[in-house]
Amino acid sequence: MTTTRVRVSAPSSRREARNGGRGRPRTRPRVRTVGPGTAASGLRAVTYNVLQCTGYPAGIAPQHLDGGADGLPALFAEALAPLGADIVTLAEAPSEDVTDEIATRLGMTPVRFASPEAWPGALLTRLEVIESANCPVRDGGRPEALFTRHWGRALLGRPRGGRLVVHSAHLHPDDAAIREREITWLLEVIAQDMTAGYDVVLQGDLNHRPEMPEYRRWLAAGLVDTFAQAGTGEGHTYRSDLPMARLDYVFAGGALAERVREARVLTGAPFCAAAAGRPYALSDHVPVLAVFN
Fold it and tell me: What radius of gyration do the chain's Cα atoms show?
């Protein structure tokens, strides 16, 4: 397993390194946020496939933004800030620089999960990052043809004690047999985390619907689908302009699974074009928010 320890100060340290050691470059303004769930038992989690922060349909958003495509990171940060999330996981994350800019604006620490193709993931968090690993499989190597999008794991420290394991995953979009194999690997590591007594969150674009066999495997392993537990409606997360499928999930395991208070698919403004009254959406997916007591 390849493990990277990330300090809370890592974002500024990385920027100083890229700045040739000349001190901190110009910082970007943070946006106003709702207070995060800082109590020992409180947690707000968001997962969002952001389509590399290019806007949807492709090429439309920059035509309507001051600064063109350079204005998109601020737009995403402004959209996410009111959610007051403690953890945000991104599928199809943008470049590292753009991810870092969004994290800085939100006052969060970024952790990047590289992809062997062009679909990395990222975790943004207000919590202490104790350790993180990309594709944390048992033999330390990425299984052939699996996790071509991303799978990452992070161990987080909570403000009043206790630890939380976050798994961010983006499973194969087309081949159910590959997804099944990816789930087998994921469940092996999640079982170890739950046996160790950790609260566990698994979230991301899992690319299956609730009626498919893959979904039942998460439940059989003891995970709780937060939207099924506390949400209403069909919960379609794709597409933002024509809702047709629930592909994005927040699952909870361990003691956290008993503390689901709220779950919502965020189909309103600013995430959907129609709701926001503009000709583009932020992504082809919409986010999922889960709130825990």
Answer: 18
Q: Which secondary structure element, helix H or strand E, spans residue 192, and what is its range?
A: helix 176-195
Burial class (CB in 10 A: 0-12, 13-18, 19+), 29: exposed
3 state DSSP class of 187 = helix
Q: Residue 106 and residue 124: Cα distance in Å, rounded?
A: 9
Prediction pTM value: 0.87
Per the CB < 8 A criterion, the answer to whether 134 and 121 are in contact is no
Using an 8 Å Cβ cutoff, are 199 and 256 in contact?
yes
Strands 43-49 and 87-91, by their bridges, are parallel
Cis peptide before 239 (omega within 30 of 0): yes
pLDDT tens for 130-189 read: 999 999 876 667 888 999 999 999 999 999 889 999 999 999 999 999 999 999 999 999
Asked if residues 201 and 164 have their Cβ atoms less than 8 Å apart, the reply is yes
Residues 6+ positions from 262 with CB-CB distance below 8 Å: 230, 289, 290, 291
Residue 230, classed as helix, strand or coil, is: helix
d(CA 165, CA 109): 16
CB 155 within 8 A of CB 162: no
* Domains recognised in the chain with CATH numbers: 10-19+40-292 (3.60.10.10)
Largest CA distance in the chain: 55
The residues pairing with 170 across neighbouring beta strands, listed in sequence order, are 150, 205
Stretches in the chain below the pLDDT threshold 70? 1-41, 138-140
What tokens does 128 get? 């202490």
